[in-house]
Amino acid sequence: MNIKGKQVYPNCPTIHRALVIGGMTKTQLIQKLQQSTIALNEYAQQLFASDIFTTSHTKYTVHTVQLTVRDLGYAKGATTHELFKRASDLGLKLCPLELAVYLRLEYVNQPEYSLNNSSKRHQAPSGSITIASEIRTEDDHFPKGFYLRRINDVLWLRGYLADHLHVWNPGDHFIFCQTTFRKT
């Protein structure tokens, strides 16, 4: 598929990662984040405290791909539902919530974007990477998932709010899982 001369997944540039996740409790993950001086916003803390955030007792390998909204064929942006449907049609899966923590712990060289360069209100901030995960609540005031960001040389794991009408911009970055999960 092409959109105005741009290649769409899987025929576009991508960033692939393999991560070993699982095997730690919520408490252990929070301690690991604190030891690594990774900051959490209030929404991330809400997710951690909720029953929505679960951890796997078993370690396993997850293969991910980082794509933009445009890479999924949406030159003018798309809703979360549209993005997740297109990703599914392309053989990609949503990520477990805990993947965001392991990725944040591993991805320490994330580029920093100036706050002067940040996005407008109700949009993904410049330089952020949203982890595509199942939306587990209809409550528009409860965080839907996590995103990664670096601000003033501080690594952040942040939760975000987005209702079903929210339109993601073409340049917004997402992490999806590829279909294979392997136990380690």
Rg over CA atoms? 16 Å
Number of structural domains: 1
Q: How far apart are the termini?
A: 35 Å
Major sheet: size, sense and barrel closure? 8 strands, mixed
How does the overall form come out from the CA principal axes? globular
Structural class computed from helices and strand pairing: alpha+beta
User: Helix and strand string, N-terminal first?
Assistant: EEEHEHEEHEHEEEEE
Question: Could you list the spans in which at least 5 consecutive residues all have pLDDT below 50?
Answer: none
Count the DSSP helices: 4
- The amount of helix comes to 10-25%
**SS elements, strand count:** 12
Round the mean pLDDT to the nearest integer and report it: 91
Strand content: 25-35%
Detailed description of the structure:
The protein has 184 residues and is α+β, with helices and mostly antiparallel strands. The chain has one domain. 20% of the residues lie in helices and 30% in strands. It is built from 4 helices and 12 strands; from the N terminus they run βββαβαββαβαβββββ. The protein has helices at 26-35, 42-49, 80-89, 98-106, and strands at residues 2-3, 6-7, 15-21, 39-40, 60-68, 78-79, 92-93, 129-131, 145-151, 154-160, 167-168, 173-183. Strands 3, 4, 5, 7, 8, 9, 10 and 12 form an 8-stranded mixed sheet that branches. The radius of gyration is 16 Å and the shape is globular. The N and C termini lie far apart (35 Å).
Topology:
Blueprint: E1 2-3, E2 6-7, E3 15-21, H1 26-35, E4 39-40, H2 42-49, E5 60-68, E6 78-79, H3 80-89, E7 92-93, H4 98-106, E8 129-131, E9 145-151, E10 154-160, E11 167-168, E12 173-183
Parallel strand pairs: 4-10, 8-12
Antiparallel strand pairs: 1-2, 3-5, 5-12, 6-11, 7-12, 8-9, 9-10
